[in-house]
Amino acid sequence: MNWIKNTALFLCSILFSLIVLEVGMRFVFPDKLAVQRDHSDPLMPRQSAGALKDPAFRSTATFDSTGLRVNPNNCANVVDRRILIVGDSNIAALFLNDGLDLSAQLAQLLNETGCVIVDSFGVAGYGPDQSVFAATHLLKAQHYDDVIFHIFADNDAGDLLRNNYPLENGRLTNTGYCHPNRSFLDRLVLPQAGRKLYYAATGKILDWHSLRHSLGDDARCLASDVTTVGSQFDQLQARAVNDLKINQANGAQAYMNDRFDVEFACQSSPVSQQIAMSKMSAIVQGVLDLATEKSFNPMFLLQPSEFDVTANHADLSQDIQTSCPNYAPTNNTDFFVQAIGEKVAMINLYDAFSDCGDCFYTMAEAGGDNHWNAYGIGVAAKELATVLAR
What we know:
The chain is of the alpha/beta class.
């Protein structure tokens, strides 16, 4: 019986050690368990309300209960103009402190000559389709004179396939969204640390999440297989093939499941381009209809991919350039330029960001992060302020 007692003592000591380690890590990393996305609305995910901290960037981003980023630079007097910006993680800008995101920098510039309020609604993982859905919802409660639809020409074309909102009578229909189900392991710091160590050691993602659909259609939510075999181009190309298969099977992926849109950069999948173009055309028309209904000036803000305009991630950029003969650094932005045409006003930041390595986070600063930084946002804010002042 001694072996049973010894085994029990050994297991209890391990369990006690894990509990002590978990408690200690919670004390050292108090923000690791914060829930950054609010999925209570089945049609519109948003950033969670309150102060969201990003330990990697040592930043604090504050959001109100509607998902709008708190803007300390908004005018507090009689308002001359209200502007809304909708978009993805570049607009949410969790990596920057309050006062440095696009809405704040734009408000600071515009309030030099007037009294302007600039609100921004950004959610990490959003595609152009979800941005229009969000604007439609927000405009029910507040009138805006201008609405700026941000597009990230890095993963937004592929988002149209991955989100896979249905087209009905030439319009996209909001049928809910897929997201990872928050499990018991997500409520513990230790498993998350172990998952990061596993990824660092093997390059493979240890995923324990199941996918849920916000309106209950869980069977439609599918995960694209992630491969770590071959070059970075090979891995991206494999994802592109899987994403198209899921789309054509009427499946949808978790809305934050982004990647560089290699099939658009390389023009290697005419079917994917055709699907995305049809949905982007519906988005443009939807923006025009919404602008007429709610009486605002619409504008698209087109942000290029860091991989296409800088050498900050030279290994990936060179891998793509040498692996696909049809690659051109303008392909991703040209897709949206063609889709939007002259139907809606557009600011294309490609030239402003070309060779601007300082506009994005570098490998040394943030690893593989591909967001613009405070300086790059400042460049965009100046471009916007110039156009809006006309």
